[in-house]
Amino acid sequence: MGSQLDSKSTFVHSGIISNIKGNAIIVTLEQNIHCESCRAKAACGISESNTKEIEIINSRDTFKLNENVNVVLKKALGLKAVFWAYVFPFLVMFSSLIIASTFLIEWQAGLISILVLIPYYFILYVLKNTFKKALEISILKI
After folding, report:
1. Concatenated DSSP letters for 47-96?
2. Best CA proximity match to 137, nearest among 8, 29, 49
3. pLDDT in tens, 42-66
4. What digits encode the pLDDT tens for the residues 62-95?
5. Which of these, 4, 100, 132, 142, could form a disulfide with 109 (CB 3.0-4.6 Å)?
C-alpha cells in the first residue's frame, strides 16, 4: 500500500461512499485540508469546491455505504486524461483550420475546424467505457 500512496506519483483524496450500483461505486470527495498548500491544486480541480462526486469501477473489494475510503489517482493517468480531453482535440481543430484555410474562405475554415470536434467528442462518448478501464482510479479502505 505504501507504493500506491507515494505522493510523488499519485494524488490521494479521502471520501465517503455515497452510492453503490453493481460494480460502480460513487464516492463523495471531501475538501482536503492539504489542498491549499498543494502545488497541483489548479490542475486537480478538487480544491475548487467543497464536495465532488466520482464514479469508480471496482470488482475486487466489497464496500458499504457511508464507508470512509481513500481515492488514489496516478498522476500519469491524469496527464493522459488531459491529453485526450484538451490537447488532442486542440491539435485536430488547429490542423483542420490550417488545411481548410488553404481551400476555403476564412469563416468556412473556422466553422469546419469547430464542427470537426463534434465527431471527435461523439467518438469519445462511444468509447467512454474503454477510457474508464484505461484511466482506472483506485479506491482503498481507510
Report:
1. GGSS-EEEEEE-SSS---TT-EEEEEEEHHHHHHHHIIIIIHHHHHHHHH
2. 29
3. 656 555 556 678 888 776 777 888 8
4. 788 888 888 887 777 878 888 988 999 999 999 9
5. 100
Helix (H, G, I), strand (E, B) or coil at 109: helix
Q: How far apart are CA 37 and CA 85, in angstroms?
A: 27
Within 13 Å, how many C-alpha atoms sit on residue 21's CB side? 7
Residue 96 has pLDDT above 90, yes or no: yes
Q: What are the residue boundaries of the structural domains of the chain, listed by start?
A: 10-141
Give the contacts of 30 (CB within 8 A, at least 6 positions apart): 13, 14, 15, 16, 51
Q: How does strand 24-29 pair with strand 138-141?
A: unpaired
Residue 79: partners with Cβ closer than 8 Å, 6 or more residues away: none
